[in-house]
Amino acid sequence: MENSLRIKVYLSPGARADLQQLNQRVLKHPQGKERALLEATIVMLHRLNGPRHPTKPLNYDPRFADLSDCDTTYVGADSHAKPPLRIVSRDIRPSRSDGITRREIVAIGARQDSKVYRVAGQRLGRPMGITLAELAAQRESATDPSRSRQHSVNSFDSPSADEPNLLLG
To answer: Which end of the chain is more exposed for a tag (fewer CB within 10 A), N or C?
Structure first.
């Protein structure tokens, strides 16, 4: 029997707030284009639950925090226009081979001026212009017992254990 990748989408607190902001815009303008955009976003979030998902891997760009372990998904309601929203997500692999991969939605936001990528980097606690390898090296040196104890940058990378999960599925 083939071992297929099992995935569950998790909305981070920031992504949950992004979705609520989009919903607030719909409530203010119920007949506006935001309604179709909210519906398209919800549909896309459900599509992200599977191993065959419409994402594009992000590459390191020194103008932003390193999001090379993340993917982006384009969201739009008008097939004749550039999709105005982006969903930034990353897969967190399970510790066991038979576990479920957690696809964390980090940010949902505007394509304009790459705002969503700046927000995603901030939410992950990553400084601009530093690669993940450099952050890992900093973490290694921070855990060196001969050095004073420092706060690990990557401690911001995972949701807290007591944070309620908002799963789609």
So the answer is: N
Determine the Cα–Cα distance for residues 19 and 107; give it in Å rounded to an integer: 9
CA–CA dist 24, 4 (Å, integer): 38
**Single-letter amino acid, residue 22:** L
Gap between the Cα atoms of 87 and 105, Å rounded: 7
- pLDDT digit string, tens, across residues 123-168: 999 999 889 998 888 878 777 655 444 443 333 344 444 444 455 5
Burial (Cβ within 10 Å: 0-12, 13-18, ≥19) of residue 31: exposed
If we measure between CA atoms, which residue out of 157, 103, 151 comes closest to residue 132? 157
Where are any strands of DSSP class E within 65-141? 71-75, 85-92, 101-110
Give the tens place of pLDDT for each residue, 98-132.
788 899 999 999 988 889 999 999 999 999 988 99
